[in-house]
Design a protein that fits this description.
Length: 311
């Protein structure tokens, strides 16, 4: 697939992430990028936001998590991104090292709040966040891959530094070796002092774990999910039809009776296509730069309503 890099030789390395994690990293709020595999690079890592629009519950869970862990270090006035754009290249960070979870948890040389971000097997240590003044629409890929040259050249001119709420400089064991801060490089002889966790902090950590877990099975079975969603008689399709029947106006009822067969066929195709698009993280929604509103109709609903309008 175009853009992927399986050799480990990266030029203008990029990582596609779900929102809101992508913007939280680029805005310097998130300092640790958690993965189940060690970081294969050091240096600049471009961040691309995947195509799934984050729901309000996920955004709230992650913002609550960071409010609580920054409060441990006495910071109580976090400013979060105004929106979480999707299907966009949004900025970059510098990956300076990678540690195992237990190493970061016990590393006394970093603030307590950073240690609380150790929630995954491997923790990529990120510094020097920069955001793009104008996010670039582009397609993403799994894993770390190379940016296309034309995208990189345009994006590099639009970067602006971000003032992180608590900038962290991770100590490098050997400044001459950019890979010296790696799993196993931190001594665990003396365990770090236990961080006092309030009930709010524990709840925020649990919420963050739950929010991240929602993507693990989806990412592993994305192909089968897309196939399943393309079936006309899925539960989601039937629910959508029921919703449309409840919300129809008298004029739309009249139109539907006169063109019942044509509308049924067209609407099923529209709904199924929208669901296939939703299951792909690479398809940008119509309003990609806006935060989702809990009362806004879904793309499926809007597409189906367009099919019910009278000629």
């Amino acid at each position: 697939m175009k853009g992927r890099n399986f050799s480990g030789n990266y030029t203008n390395a990029c990582l596609t992430m779900h929102q809101p994690w992508a913007s939280l990293l680029v805005y310097g709020i998130k300092r640790i990028e958690g993965r189940s595999w060690p970081a294969p690079i050091r240096g600049r890592l471009w961040i691309h936001a995947a195509g799934k629009v984050p729901d309000e519950a996920t955004i709230k869970a992650m913002e609550d998590f960071y409010r609580e862990i920054y409060a441990v270090n006495g910071i109580n006035d976090l400013k979060f991104p105004e929106n979480y754009p999707v299907s966009r290249l949004i900025g970059c960070v510098e990956v300076v090292g990678c540690l195992k979870r237990e190493e970061l948890e016990s590393w006394e040389m970093v603030p307590e709040g950073v240690r609380l971000e150790a929630l995954t097997d491997f923790c990529w240590l990120c510094e020097q966040p920069q955001k793009l003044l104008i996010p670039f629409e582009m397609r993403g890929y799994q894993g770390v891959y190379n940016l296309e040259k034309r995208i990189y050249e345009a994006a590099a001119r639009g970067l602006t530094p971000v003032e992180a709420p608590l900038a962290v400089r991770f100590p490098i064991p050997d400044p001459r070796d950019k890979f010296s801060l790696k799993p196993g490089s931190i001594s665990n002889k003396s365990k770090a002092s236990e961080i006092q966790r309030s009930s709010n902090l524990n709840a925020a950590i649990a919420g963050a774990r739950a929010a991240a877990t929602q993507f693990s099975k989806k990412d592993q079975g994305s192909s089968s999910q897309a196939t399943h969603n393309s079936t006309p008689n899925t539960i989601r399709t039937r629910q959508m039809k029921n919703k449309l029947n409840e919300d129809e106006t008298p004029s739309s009822n009249l139109s539907k009776r006169s063109n019942k067969r044509d509308l049924t066929s067209n609407n099923e195709e529209s709904v199924d296509q929208s669901m296939c698009e939703e299951s792909s993280s690479n398809v940008p929604p119509p309003s990609a730069d806006l935060k989702p509103h809990p009362g806004a109709p879904s793309k499926i609903f809007a597409a189906a309503l367009r099919g019910l309008k009278q000629p």
